[in-house]
Amino acid sequence: MKITFYGHASLGIEVNGKFILVDPYISANPKAAIININELKADYILLTHAHQDHVLDVEYIASRTDATIVSNYEIASHFGNKGLKYHPMNHGGSWNFDFGKLKYVSAIHSSSFADGSYGGNPGGFVIEGEHKNIYISGDTALTMDMKLIPMRTKLDLAIFPIGNNFTMDVEDAILASDFVECDKILGVHYDTFGYIEINHEDAIRKFFDKGKDLMLLTIGESIQL
After folding, report:
1. Which residues of the chain have pLDDT under 70?
2. Helices then strands, each counted (H, E), the chain
3. Fewest Cβ atoms nearer than 10 Å: which of 83, 133, 169, 178?
């Protein structure tokens, strides 16, 4: 399983020969100017919620790649009504895709499209594929529901927002890593704009002091699980 960071909360995941994009917000992010969305491959696009900084490039990329959009019922149907391929889910549900098993789990945040229309309830994803399991929390507060995840799935990686203000901060993300029983963390949703700028060295040190590994990838950088 290969995971590539495209800036903000946008990720590319290669698993079992399939290409997954998560929350593609790239074209309007000046920090991600090195990423050409016309070159991105996508068999699936996973969306945690409807905010513009998570769905901006969905329609363009899905139209070009014929990717299947996977999200809550409201978001998936929204794009399905535009003629795009979609697979709707809701909290607690799972589905066996050709890349592996995907479960849609809860998150505490808000969710609406740029025009103010309803974007359903926010969520996160647990992916099980290639004998590796990852949790993408999506934008969320620290929540006790995270403790349910390791009851069903032993994680190899947890992906958490750490920018504060709109989501968890670093300290809450450390607690979240305890809740999901995973000490290998990939940080997202930081530095894109002023409200969520962080001190990288301080964040990494705080995780290290708790015996945990926080990875802050440069945009375009990848890790292999």
Report:
1. none
2. 6, 14
3. 83
